[in-house]
Amino acid sequence: MKPPLVFLLTLLGIVTSSLGENVVVNTTSVSDKLQVGFYKLSCPNAEKIVEDVINKSSKQNQGIIPGIIRLHFHDCYVTGCDASILLTPERYNSLNAEMAHPANSISLRGMDALEAAKADIEKQCPGIVSCADILAFAARDVVVLAGNPRYEVPAGRRDSFSTDGSFANDLPKGNHSVDHLIKTFAERGLTTEDLIVLEGSHSIGQTRCLNTIADNSSMVGDEMLGAKTLVDRPFQQMVKQKFCPESQEELFWNMTSPLVPANPNTSNWGISYYDDIMKGKSLIPSDIALAVDPSTKELVAHFASDSADWQKKFNEAMIKLGKINILTDKQGEIRKTCRWVNAVNTA
């Protein structure tokens, strides 16, 4: 079986990383057209409305915290932060939608909360606030609920009409090499440090059992040799027995394991991830590879011992992620509901 797609996140310039390596980063993928306080006059309560809905929804289902972080990453990584992942594959929307792609489909969480926030905003400010901005605000709010300081979210994004769902094939996979991840993140304007920092969100949430276990079948190629050696075999066996029993292999598509099985509900946000991958205690092969690859292992060790710096860098990386290949000005539209393009509501 193929390894799963996991969550989890121009002017070309040469950016020198803190590790002393040159990485080509596509810097014009990251827009400078967004503004903090974009809705200050047109819809002053927009961010507060989103925050209130997210806080209420998270009390009912804490799964939306990692779920919305993942939604934001999957949306921005594919064609840009345009809320295309929120379009349902039905009716006038494209049937070949991102939402229907195997990397998303049944594993998406938090969309009801986003739709509720959109509905409340539409009552006060109809046709003003985009779903793409609501998703970016919500992502900030769940990051705060996870344990990070609050950060300001620049806004002004507009919503796409549709996106070819096949583009979701580009999402990071659990067996991708570190070199591949560095390259594909750089194509989107994200540095090696951004990659390492954003992967820290794997300290909360779930992952599918389907080939998520870091073992010989999911760790192939010379680039995975070091990671193979580091894997904690008793840990992997425990996960298989407790969460992903081989006797239930035919159900693996719908079965999940906590990313941090020892503390599935109270994971130590962020810092536990780096400590765990350095010990080979991860379900995702590419995560373990970060702990041994020469290009990444020093920063992994740094963040394992400095949670305050990781939190700061994570917030900065989330802001940058939210600026990738956005629609602004007259591009796209401001959807009336996040699930449908406006043509549905006027048909």
CATH class of the largest domain: Mainly Alpha
* Number of domain modules: 2
CATH names the topology of the largest domain as Peroxidase, domain 1
* DSSP strand tally: 4
General shape: globular
Q: Determine the fraction of residues in helical runs and give it as a percent range.
A: 25-40%
Main β-sheet, spatial strand arrangement: 1-2
Low-confidence stretches: 1-20
**Classification by helices and strands:** mainly alpha
**End-to-end span in angstroms?**
43 Å
Q: What profile does the largest beta sheet have? A: 2 strands, antiparallel
Rg over CA atoms: 20 Å
For the record, the CATH architecture of the largest domain stands as Orthogonal Bundle
Average pLDDT, rounded to a whole number, is 85
Question: Helix and strand string, N-terminal first?
Answer: EEHHHHHHEHHEHHHHH
Tell me the number of helical segments per DSSP (H or I, 4 or more residues long): 13
How much strand content do the residues show?
under 5%
Describe this protein with a few key phrases:
two-stranded antiparallel sheet, 2 domains, two-stranded antiparallel ribbon, Peroxidase, domain 1, disordered N terminus, single chain, 347 residues, Peroxidase, domain 2, mainly alpha
Task: Characterise the protein shown here.
It contains 13 helices and four strands. 39% of the residues lie in helices and 5% in strands. It has helices at 46-60, 64-78, 111-124, 131-146, 178-187, 192-198, 225-230, 233-242, 271-278, 285-290, 297-305, 307-321, 342-346, and strands at residues 12-16, 22-26, 206-208, 256-258. It starts with 11 loop residues before the first strand and ends with a helix. The protein is mostly helical and 347 residues long. 50% of the residues are buried. α1 (46-60) packs antiparallel against α3 (111-124), α2 crosses α4 (131-146) and α9 (271-278) packs across α11.
